[in-house]
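Go through the following before class.
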Amino acid sequence: MADKPQGIIGLSRSLLLNRNIRAIAVTGLISGIYLGMLNFALQIFPLTIGLGVPAVGILQAVGNRFSGLTATLVQPLAGHHSDLHSRKQSIMLGSVTTVASMLCFAGSAVLRDGYLVLVAFLLYGVSVLGSPATQAMVAESVGLEPRKMDVAYSVIFFLGTLPGVVSPYLAGAIAESYGYLVVFGAAALLECVDLYLYWHELREITHRTAAEPEQEGRFSLREAFTFPKSSWGLYGALASDAFAFGITINIIYAMAQGQFHFSDSEIGLLVSVFYLAMLASQFPATRVLMRVGPKRTLILSEAIGTVLMAGWALSSTLPEFLILSALFGTSVTTWVPGVSSLLMTHAPPKTRGGVGGRVAAFRGLVAAPAPIIGGYLYQYFGYYFPLLASLVGTLVCIVLMSKYLPERPRQNGQI
């Protein structure tokens, strides 16, 4: 009789015995402390040195770590480089760049210099260059088994989310009392700890099929930015989500503070509830992912996003926004592990880092103008117009995802 498959808890424990998974999970936990703080600080801090919401939109478009133009250009190159050379090297370079970015933010807090803020945002966008390599290393460390990948990505996401229950609120209170210099200085110190752990703990792993022998390739700029024609629908569906959400979520806290006069600590509380909701929904979201697969999980996430946009448009008080923060957290929990699982399941072994980078690039290219559009919609037409644009966009995304996201791995393994 075949052994009964491990449950989520048991599988999570066994995966954390893997050295690379454990190192990535622990560094994610440490990063989660300051990423929770930055989640709102990078929207509110520019306002404190005299910049407006449209300027926040421009800075987010340039340097947002997940959908900014800088991250868009860097990730395909970094992913392709990690496929040919070293996952660990790419991850460590991303960590070094993060430290440099935080130091520039700290300097701008002292000097109140808008140009230094721009440099800090640019470096922050570049710092995501380790993300494709991290995705690939996780997949390779669990032998590319879909069930293990689903749980590994969810465990790492869970641990990275955990500190955000407390850190945003504390950061808001600290910023009100002592200024943003302390926030950015703490972020730099925490990332230095991550950098040491990456250097000391990570080990390179390569996984190739018998049909794909070991070979040394050359770095190709053209290959790094090549998008297979057969996967344009999938790329487009994921990119449309980045655009629809990018209009609003990259500036929502700046908009809410301007419209409803929430304090820094209240914005921090909203972000803390957002993280708490991600934690609370992690286990059921993982079960949904394992039961129905990435495609249906991502469509569910998009539908929750549609409700979220409508809720933000209809709400005006802090308690209402707290409820919506919980809904926001649930939408993210059902999205992030699902995307990682979908891409790594369908990616050919030799180009896993490149696939993650190309998808991030395409999403970023499409989404780069979104926060700028949102900022100017807010400036000239008011609070509700960016939300309406995002709501319509999420409905379009649901249609595209239903049509183009694959149900299961393709026979030729290409994405």
